[in-house]
Every structure is written in structure tokens, then in C-alpha cells.
Amino acid sequence: MDWLDSIPSAFLQKDLDGLWARQKVISDNMANIETPGYKEKNISFENQLKSKIDSIDGSGNVPDEINGIEDTKPLMTENTRETYRADNSGVDLEQQMVSMARTSLNYSYSLQTMGDYFTRLKAAITGSSK
Amino acid sequence: MAFLHSLDISGSGLTASRLRMDLISENIANAETTRTEHGGPYCRKMAVYQCADTNGSFRSMLDSQTAKSSGNMPLNGVKVSSIEEDKAPFPVEYDPSNPDADARGYVQKPNVDLIKETTDMMAVTRAYNANMTAFDSVKDMAAKAIEIGK
Asked: Which ipTM was obtained for this model?
């Protein structure tokens, strides 16, 4: 185990990966907004991470927990039910815009948390927060 | 490059919108053209959009199916698969003085509907803007990710 690896940083890393994947899917949905028959794609990863968080109670050893976190994968689903146009296209532009703004903010938030984590680590190494 | 592949996806949307806009411009420019290389009036052109995930080949189908189960996503945005001609009949107009009029004095006009082209143009503009917003968003996220640990 690398000494920099820890459970919080593994979670943050997975969170950032998942959000990035979601942004990518949103880009794809938007690129295909005029494609007949295209169906909106979604990414879900929060639930997998949440169940990992719930399962960690401090009794297991850290490298195994980290490996467990790293094994979670974002899941891509296709929303085949909704149809918004006569040509069978299923992309809701407004909803995608909202989702995009949310993903982008969430990403910044997680990056900030990651930055803070490294700042604390730096403080522990140097003995000062500067 | 895998990291900034999202930008390519938005880029494909921008390219497709641009091409569609070009076709609309051409349609409008030729709204009164009664003589073309192939004879007959100008025929309205349309772009056919296709999701670029799979192009129907065995390889791409296999990739998309195996990728779905392993969590990797073959997202490639959109592409214009072909440019088709509108099959709508040409409207005829009685104008015996027109050099392209037939023996009875009727002229075949292009099947371009200016109102249809204008609404299409608005839809394309909207799609272009949406892709641009997605592009900017990904760019901002990537720029922030570089700042990690600073």
C-alpha cells in the first residue's frame, strides 16, 4: 500500500471519476439531441459508493477496503421509456442542462475537498499549514 | 486522448450542427433555382444524423456490448451519416415567360420551404449552443482538476 492512499482519498477519487463519466455522458446526450431514435444515457455511481461507505465500520484492514472502493464502477443506463419528439428522440435538453450544472458544481466541490485533504497532509509533514 | 475525450464528443455535435447549417444556407440560397446540373429544379438537401457509438459493423457492435458490461463507455457523439434529398414533389407555377417553362407554360420550382428552413435554422442554433455550453463546462472542470493540491 502506498502511504498516500487512504479511504477518504479513494472515495474522492471515485467520486471525481464518476462525475467525469457523467459529464461525458451529458456531452454525448447533447451532441445527439437531434439524432432520431437516440435515447438519453445516465450514469449512476453514488449508490455504489454509499453502500461502500455504509459497509466500512473500521474493523476491516485498510488496503482491502481501498481495493473494494476502487473496484466500484460507474454504471451506464439508457432511458428507453421517454420520448420527446415524433422521431423517437429521447433527450430532454433542460434536464441535461440542470444535470450538467449540478455535475460541474459537484466536481468543483469534490476537488476542493481533495485539495483540503492534501493541505492537511502537507501540514502534517511540515508541521505548519503554510 | 482519453482524458479530454469529452471535448471531442461536444466537438462532433458542433461539427454536425455546422454542416446542417451549411445545408440550410444552401437550400435558402437555391430557393429559386430552376436549373441544375442534373436538369430540373434544385432539390432540398437534408443531413441524416446518426449516433456514432456504433456504425453497424461487427467490430463496433462487439465493442459497445463488451464495453457496456465492463463499465467503459464507447461514447463518440454524433455524426452525419449521409446527405439526403427531399422526396417531396416540386411545386409547379404558371409562368410562360420563364426560360425553364415547359410547353404548356408551367415551371417546376425547388421544393424548398423557407419557413421550414428558418425553423430548422433555429433548432440548429439551439443545438449548437447546447454543445458549446457542454464544451465549456468540461473545459472548466478539466482546468480546475489541474489545480488539485495547489
From this structure: 0.82
